[in-house]
Structures are given as C-alpha cells and as structure tokens.
Amino acid sequence: MKKIIIAGLGPGSPEDMTPAVMEAVKEADIVVGYKYYFQFIKPFIKSDCECIDTGMKKERERAEMAFKLAEQGNTVVVISSGDAGIYGMAPLIYEMKRERVTNGLPADIEVMSLPGISAFQKAASLLGAPIGHDLCIISLSDLMTPWEVIERRIKAAAIGDFVTAIYNPKSHGRYWQLYRLQELFLQERDADTPVGYVRQAGREEQEIKLTTLGDFNPEDIDMFTVVLIGNSQSYIAEGKFITPRGYYSSCKLSESSAEKPGQQIMIESFRTIEKELKHQNYPLDHKWALLHAIHTTADFNMEDILYTDEGAVETLYNKVKNGEITTIVTDVTMVTSGIRKGALQRLGIEAKCYLQDARVAEYASNNNITRTQAGIRLAIEEHPNALFAFGNAPTALMELCDLIRKGKAHPAGIIAAPVGFVHVKESKHMVKPFKDIPKIIVEGRKGGSNLAATLCNAILTFDDAAQLKPGRDL
Fold it and tell me: Is pTM, for the whole model, over 0.85?
C-alpha cells in the first residue's frame, strides 16, 4: 500500500515522542523533513532508511517529494516537530492530496497523521498548569497570514479571556509584533496576569521563565520560544503557573464542596462587572471593594466615587483576622442586617447597632441630639476600637468625627456611606483628615445601608480576593 505518514515528533526528547510515532519511523523506507529534526529520530530508523532534507521554508517541495516517493511504493514518513497538525505539515499534505485528485492524478496513496506533543503543551507542563481552561494558539508569523488578521485574533483572544499560547513570537525581521501583542493584551488584562515562556522546550538548551504581563520583556524572546499568557483567573503559586479549571476556583475550599446556585450567579456578576470597568489596574483591595459596591447597586459611577485609603480593605481584614477588631458598629439596623452572618460567625465578629438600645431615646432627649448621634456616643463608650459603618445618618458620622477630634475615640476603621442631601457631603469631607484611621468613603450624595453593609462584607471576605472569588456564605 502506498502510504504517507505525517508524524509529529514532539519537542525533540525521546521521552516526549509517542510510541505510535516511534513505530512509524522504524517502519519508514524514507523520511522527509528538515535536516535539523533528523537527529531526534536517528536512534529509531532502519539502517537502510533514507533521510531526505528539503531545507527550511520548503514545505510545499517537501509535500510534493513525499507524494512522488510514495507513488514509487515507499512508506514515506514526513516529520514535523511538535504536533504535525499545529503549524505543521499535515494540513498541506491533505490539501495537496485533494488537489491531486481534482487534477486526475492517482488517488491510491493513503495519508494518515500521527499526533505529537506540541510545543505549547510541553512548555505548559514545565511551567505548571497554565492551560487548565479555555485556550487558543496564535502565530505571530505574517509570512502567510496578513498582520491585520493576526491583530484581530489577538484582540479577540484578549477580550475573550483565553489563555493564549504564542508561536513564532519573534525573528530577526519581526521585532515589533510581540510588543504590539503585549500592548493589546494590557488593554484587556491586568498587568499582574501571569506570563510564562520556555525556550527550546524539552531540549538540552531549555530555559524556563515566569513573569507578569506588565513586566514581560519581548527582548527575552526568540523564535525558539513559546510564550503562554494566562487568563484573569491564572495565578502563580510556589513557582508554578496555574489556571484553575473553573471560573474563580481557588486552592482553598469553601465550607461546602460545591458552589450553590446563588454563589454561581454572584460569581458571574463579579466577572461581568470586572470586564466593564473603565480601568483594570486598581490595587486588589480597592477593586474588591469596588466590585462589591457595583454588584450591590448596579451603579458603575461607583468607579468614580468610591474612595479607599491605600491598603484600607486589606488592613481592616488583617485587624479582623488578628482579633484587633471584634465589633462592627453601624448607624442603623439595616446596615447590620446586610452584613453576612456566616462571615461574622466564622471570624468571631459582632455587628451591633445602638439605635434600638433602651438607653438611646433618653440620652438623645437629655442632650438634645439625634438618636443616631446618641447611639454613636454609647458605642464609643463600650467599643472605642470598633469598625464603624455608616449607611444612613450623616449626623452620626459627624458625631464620630467630633469625638475623634476631642480625643475620645480612635476607631479601627470607618466606612462612610451615608446618603442624602443635608450635610452628607460635608460629613464625608470631615472623615478624610484622620490619616491614621483606614477609611472607605462613598463620595458625594450617594450611599445607603446596602452600600455600607456590602463594604463591610468586602472587608470580611478579603481572603477570597486573590482569586476574585466572592464571599463564601450567601
């Protein structure tokens, strides 16, 4: 039987060559390929097997020679590195067979393709597990594909949040394309997105490097390098590049082994919000609070009006975790009601509103102040180091500021989100001068109990933010 076998050799090392390919090479009468790859099969070919080199960039001539030799009754093996079906010889030979049949040439030559380990697969295994979810492969070679088409595909991969493997990333004549790819990806992905690249994967000259999209230097890359760019869930842990199989999956498990339907909806909401943000490169703890605020209000103006002190969310979470914060004091009961009970219980925190305290009405009447002001004064007496969250009453926030200035209070943190039209803006301005108190502020007139509560929840669930995974108890 006249036969052409198209064989993918893998990256080059014998342990990465499939048994089927080894067997085909052993049976070959003639091997056709680029001479550089003959070294990888030399131990397996028959003593009388002829190896024919067609030179670099001679793919069509290689295919024509394979058909000519097969017509003479030879078993011909055409070799490619990696997988012959990925930027290899397989498509060309199948197309040529179809063309030959159309032109009336003999059709009795069997063509079969044997898969090999592609360079991106080998590189991925060396980097860790970067291709655990949806992925695509893009070649930057514009020899046969116009750059306009390549750039359109790059944009689609970046927008689509695909893990992306880059072939033919750079050559002596193509020095700028990889820079352009990095620029396009940074328009859609965070600068901290993991990037890994491997040079000469599976060969003696092998080099492995992990970095980020922002720090990635195209000057480190050559034509023997495969580049892998992670998606928005990818991360680096213990020197390994990992892309979770499911959206927002995490190394640490939630209390339940399976996500509840409500959590799945929230997860998808967070992902949608993140994609629609005007800016992507926020510090993680600010972004975590922002996602919660927008998720609660469906108001993307939060991106312009949510203020957080540098590191405020992370600082307050650490205070909770370390036992420095044991109480959250709220101005109204609706804020307390919106704070996740499971998170409070898990962290050993009490959320408390003094508005319904029996002492408040009398205290307010005797001192000619509002009940919310009275509640804050009582709270300060009993919980001077609490986290204070305001979602309704600017007078309560102003009362706390006055007590701080008089040296009678030093809260662990302040969430300033009262809503309304009288003294609201001023109350928020009053908070900012306290530089040593971590603050989260909803600027302007907007705010509300729901916002104050969700910002508390952002603090209590910050341990999930590394994977942008919403809080565990819904």
Answer: no
